């Protein structure tokens, strides 16, 4: 059996999620190749060649792949698909964008956001905001799968797979990158940080995030997350949203500040190792999943916490 | 330009579903059903495009049980012009939904399809991308802004690192994210008017598409429960526990 893993990257660095997708691929079993499609992404291909247990790296370098738009990515992956029984990517917004398109072109049903591999054709995936786990068996000849990285162990980086340059194309030319506005932050990446501190509606303003949450995050070397309510209100950018329809995180320590604990939020953080909740309402549902709950006004508790650390 | 909006009848987002004791599925008996929230956002966006003079007709489609009529009527009350209900009592997977929608697109020839990024029951996030693939149209997923400029559609997308804007040729498929708009509530007069708007019914079986699921649900189980934690009395106690008990600081 052969498995193609689509690498997550930004043309400069390989994203850690790819190491976890390879971890999932090893559970399925078979020869694992990694596709790096990008523009001037040689460093990423080099990094991918070091992933443990990889047979070879396919490297397609072309300006069309600079932003990994769904249309050219799909055509490339479909072109390579004949040689593979499985095509895997992470649940990054890139993967979620092009993988279903690949699946439809191959006439197979994508298996979305798996959190477990039961056997080569049977997978576990959360449904209903994680309130249930479905075990599904695929009858499709080829399996197109997105992998929830937080659910799998990253493999090591002691490999030395050969890199094979491949041509790009076909290029459909129906979509074009115009611009991007990337959130700048020196803090660790939300998806892979060891500690995450998230703020909710209770913060009340962008300034409050800056005054109460960010300094604490810096002290703990933590990533900052947020509830949908805080993002909708514009306190922090959209990519901070943790939850069913945002990012799923599973850090060593998750600190929820002024977040009520709606099921949609819980779906994104209940796999964290230790959960702390700070909320002034002792009935808040977040306390039902918290290992340590502090009933307090955040505007008093956070400065104290900052000091105590 | 005609805009097509597929809407799904799903469990209401406020319901915490439970797994059936026999582990065959979740228990949906007597729970509140609603339009998928992302689809409400899609309907709202279509109505705004119409109000802005960019769209001239909005057609709403739902594939599901007879009762999915309620969700189509809701969309009509929000401002859509007519509905198509494709009835079936079996669960239809995303790929088959996309194939039915493709046939409807071939018949209706919309200039744009706007749909939800994700149905909150199965959390698959794939039908829009699949429809775009089958039609060979470009896709603008997870949209937080949609603008028509000349003959292109500018779609700003919510991505992992922030926002990205792409220009798409039309026709195209757009899927909605939470920040695209805030859906309106239908007024009572509009709810009354919606009852008179045309609603076509078709049977899914008549589309000549194989609806057999590709994924067999072997079982549905409860996720592992977290052990109940403790309440700490002070910030000092919290820090002490995190350092000395949990060992995470
Ligand atoms: C389709 C859909 C998708 C969604 N996806 C997501 C998602 O991915 N992620 C997500 O988070 N949500 C999501 N939601 C929204 C979710 O349902 C909740 O509305 C949201 O999580 C609430 O955010 P919150 O907890 O910050 O706000 P609230 O529910 O308003 O809670 C604020 C909390 O702060 C506490 N508080 C107030 N003042 C203080 C103070 N001074 N000190 C301490 N505590 C205080 C209150 O007691 C309360 O518990 C989604 C909803 C829908 C419909
Ligand atoms: N049965 C259906 N009827 C109409 N639209 C649907 C149906 N299933 C999915 N959709 C559309 O596809 C979107 C994404 O669904 P999914 O890929 O299942 O997460 C939804 O938000 C709807 O717009």
Automatic annotation (TrEMBL), chain A:
Keywords: Electron transport, FAD, Flavoprotein, Transport. It comes from the Bacteria. The keyword Transport applies. PROSITE patterns: ETF_ALPHA (PS00696). Coiled coil: none annotated. The keyword Transport applies. Residues 3-181 form the Electron transfer flavoprotein alpha/beta-subunit N-terminal domain. Pfam families: ETF (PF01012), ETF_alpha (PF00766). This is Electron transfer flavoprotein subunit alpha/FixB family protein. It comes from Parvularcula lutaonensis. The lineage of its organism: Bacteria, Pseudomonadati, Pseudomonadota, Alphaproteobacteria, Parvularculales.
TrEMBL record, chain B:
Keywords: Electron transport, Transport. It holds the Pfam family ETF. Coiled coil: none annotated. InterPro entries: ET-Flavoprotein_bsu_CS (IPR000049), ETF_a/b_N (IPR014730), ETF_b (IPR012255), ETF_beta_N (IPR033948), Rossmann-like_a/b/a_fold (IPR014729). Residues 23-211 form the Electron transfer flavoprotein alpha/beta-subunit N-terminal domain. Belongs to the ETF beta-subunit/FixA family. This is Electron transfer flavoprotein subunit beta. The lineage of its organism: Bacteria, Pseudomonadati, Pseudomonadota, Alphaproteobacteria, Parvularculales.
């Amino acid at each position: 059996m052969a498995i193609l893993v689509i690498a997550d990257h930004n043309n400069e660095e390989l994203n850690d999620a790819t190491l976890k997708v390879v971890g999932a691929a090893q559970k399925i079993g078979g020869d694992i190749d990694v596709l790096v499609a990008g523009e001037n992404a040689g460093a990423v291909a080099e990094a991918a060649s070091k992933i443990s247990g990889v047979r070879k790296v396919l490297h397609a370098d072309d300006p069309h792949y600079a932003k990994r738009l769904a249309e050219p990515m799909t055509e490339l992956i479909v072109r390579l698909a004949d040689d593979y029984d499985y095509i895997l990517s992470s649940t990054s917004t890139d993967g979620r964008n092009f993988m279903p398109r690949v699946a439809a072109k191959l006439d197979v049903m994508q298996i979305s956001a798996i959190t477990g591999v039961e056997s080569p054709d049977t997978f576990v995936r959360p449904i209903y905001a994680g309130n249930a786990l479905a075990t599904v068996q695929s009858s499709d000849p080829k399996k197109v799968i997105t992998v929830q990285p937080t659910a799998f162990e990253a493999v090591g980086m002691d490999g030395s797979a050969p890199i094979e340059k491949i041509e790009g194309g076909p290029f459909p030319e129906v979509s074009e990158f115009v611009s991007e506005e990337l959130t700048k932050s020196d803090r660790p990446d939300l998806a892979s940080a060891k500690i995450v501190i998230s703020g909710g509606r209770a913060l009340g303003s962008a300034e409050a995030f800056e005054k109460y949450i960010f300094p604490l995050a810096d002290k703990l070397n933590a990533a900052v997350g947020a509830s949908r309510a805080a993002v909708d209100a514009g306190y922090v950018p959209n990519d901070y949203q943790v939850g069913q329809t945002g990012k799923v995180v599973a850090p060593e320590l998750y600190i929820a500040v002024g977040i009520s604990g709606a099921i949609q939020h819980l779906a994104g953080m209940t796999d964290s190792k230790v959960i702390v909740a700070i909320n002034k309402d002792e009935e808040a549902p977040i306390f039902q999943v918290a290992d340590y709950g502090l009933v307090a006004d955040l505007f008093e508790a956070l400065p104290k916490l900052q000091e105590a650390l | 330009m005609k805009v097509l909006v597929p809407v799904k009848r799903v469990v209401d987002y406020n319901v915490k579903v439970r797994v059936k004791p026999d582990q065959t599925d979740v228990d949906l008996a007597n729970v509140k059903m609603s339009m998928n929230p992302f689809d409400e956002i899609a309907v709202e966006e279509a109505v705004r495009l119409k109000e802005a003079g960019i769209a001239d007709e909005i057609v709403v489609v739902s594939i599901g049980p007879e009762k999915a009529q309620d969700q189509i009527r809701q969309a009509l009350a929000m401002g859509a012009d007519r509905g198509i209900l494709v009835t079936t009592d079996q669960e239809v997977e995303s790929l088959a939904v996309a194939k039915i929608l493709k046939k409807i697109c071939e018949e209706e020839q919309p200039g744009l399809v706007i749909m939800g990024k994700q149905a909150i029951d199965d959390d698959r996030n794939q039908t829009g991308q699949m429809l775009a693939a089958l039609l060979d149209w470009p896709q603008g997923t997870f949209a937080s802004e949609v603008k028509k400029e000349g003959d292109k559609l500018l779609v700003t997308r919510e991505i992992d690192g922030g926002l990205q804007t792409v220009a798409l040729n039309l026709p195209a498929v757009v899927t909605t994210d939470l920040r695209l708009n805030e859906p309106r509530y239908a007024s009572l007069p509009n709810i009354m008017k919606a009852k008179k708007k045309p609603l076509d019914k078709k049977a899914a079986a008549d589309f000549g598409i194989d609806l057999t699921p590709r994924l067999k649900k072997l079982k549905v189980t409860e996720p592992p429960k977290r052990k109940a934690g403790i309440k700490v009395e002070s910030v000092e106690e919290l820090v002490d526990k995190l350092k000395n008990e949990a060992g995470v600081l």
